[in-house]
Design goal:
279 residues, alpha/beta, Elongation Factor Tu (Ef-tu), domain 3, Rossmann fold, 2 domains, globular
Length: 279
């Protein structure tokens, strides 16, 4: 996930700072997903983190290969990037952005689930720094975390309209969080694309939700979503939220407007780019 190339109304946490968390468990959920569960490395997470639901996201600071504990820009949210730039380029943590899938209170701390999409190249190698770290993660491993709040805008939802979410597999954790947070009876349509049939999940919700899954096989990300949105009729009362690969997000935003959604009621966020995944 990235904040660049986005049109959203973010909701920031009341307080946030760069903290250390440690891995307590890893779970392979399906061919395309691995879940890493972390808990506070000290008492700070228990005092400062607050679940916000929807698509709450965090910055992760992943250690360089030779660093057991990541070199992170400790301190408050304000100015974190400048502090990170001042760190030694050979030592400072690598930054990636991910959605909080779930958070549970455990005694005086928080336990957080983060789901990583796992893509493999033609040679079978796992692509991406974050996915590679997640696959190899072991209990006790330490990373940095900075809460960044939510991007989905519940204030933009018209109770008489439909919430339309469109996203590839990188948006599945956000789709789960948004579905769970929607109020009872809210009409919703989720168009979701994954690489493997086994990556599909049940979305628990109180809303009146219609979920349409597409399985992508040998075609670029967003191709199946284009097929799913074809023929869908939207109105200016609908709130549309599009996430996924950068190029596909822009195409799908345009298609949502062509389907009848109002321009100012289509929010979007580019979660990834092919060149970034490869690095």
């Amino acid at each position: 996930m990235t904040e660049s190339q986005a049109r959203t109304t973010p909701t920031k946490p009341e307080a946030a700072e760069v903290l250390l968390v440690r891995v307590v468990a890893t779970t392979r959920l399906s061919p395309g997903f691995v879940r890493v569960t972390v808990i506070g490395h000290d008492e700070l997470l228990g005092r400062t983190f607050a679940p916000m639901g929807y698509d709450q996201w965090v910055r992760l600071f992943l250690p360089r290969v030779r660093c057991e504990v990541p070199v992170v820009p400790y301190g408050e949210n304000e100015g974190w990037y400048l502090r990170w730039q001042e760190l030694d380029q050979e030592e400072r943590a690598t930054i990636r952005n991910y959605t909080v899938r779930a958070a549970r209170r455990v005694a005086d701390d928080w336990e957080i689930d983060i789901d990583f999409v796992v893509h493999a190249s033609a040679s079978g190698q796992v692509e991406g720094v974050a996915a590679g770290w997640a696959i190899a993660a072991q209990p006790g491993d330490v990373i940095g975390l900075l809460d960044q709040g939510t991007l989905f805008d519940p204030a933009g939802v018209d109770p008489e309209g439909t919430v339309v979410m469109i996203g590839d597999e990188t948006g599945i954790p956000a789709a789960e969080g948004i579905a769970a947070a929607l109020p009872e009876g809210q009409r919703a349509l989720f168009l979701l694309e994954v690489s493997h049939a086994e990556d599909r999940r049940e979305l628990v919700t109180r809303a009146d939700l219609d979920v349409r899954w597409g399985i992508r096989t040998g075609v670029p990300s967003g191709t199946v979503l284009t097929e799913l949105i074809t023929g869908v009729e939207l109105t200016e009362r609908d709130y549309v939220y599009v996430v996924g690969e950068a190029g596909a997000v822009l195409r799908l935003r345009a298609l949502a407007q062509e389907a009848g959604a109002g321009k100012e009621r289509v929010d979007f966020c580019a979660y990834w780019r092919p060149e970034r995944r490869a690095g």
